[in-house]
Amino acid sequence: DGLIPISTLPQDFYDHDDAQNRLVGRDTGQTFTLGEAVQITLYEANTNTGGLVFHLLDGGVRPARRARSKTGAVRRTTGRKTHRKRKPGRPRR
Predict the structure, then answer these.
(1) Domain ranges across the chain
(2) Nearest CA to 4 among 28, 30, 26, 33?
(3) pTM listed for this prediction
(4) What are the tens digits of pLDDT across the range 66-90?
(5) With the C-alpha atoms ordered 16, 20, 26, 30, is the resulting torsion angle positive or negative?
(6) Is the terminal CB of the chain with fewer CB neighbours within 10 Å at N or C?
């Protein structure tokens, strides 16, 4: 038995979901559930206590990506309105 320190998980802030015994990334939505199969590497072994520290190589469930438009681009909004340039010579209303 050993542990994977939360500080070694992919860069994100994680919240603990008590009901489902899992960690959920705030920004990425990636989840790590208790008992889930993951790939790890042994990072540290303490012969005095028998403690093991692992680092995650692969695992966790990543959320589905957003659907892309027909052109393949993801549309992003900035909160600012875009203005079209007026054609020269047309009076302004």
Answers:
(1) 6-58
(2) 33
(3) 0.58
(4) 545 555 555 555 556 555 666 667 6
(5) positive
(6) C
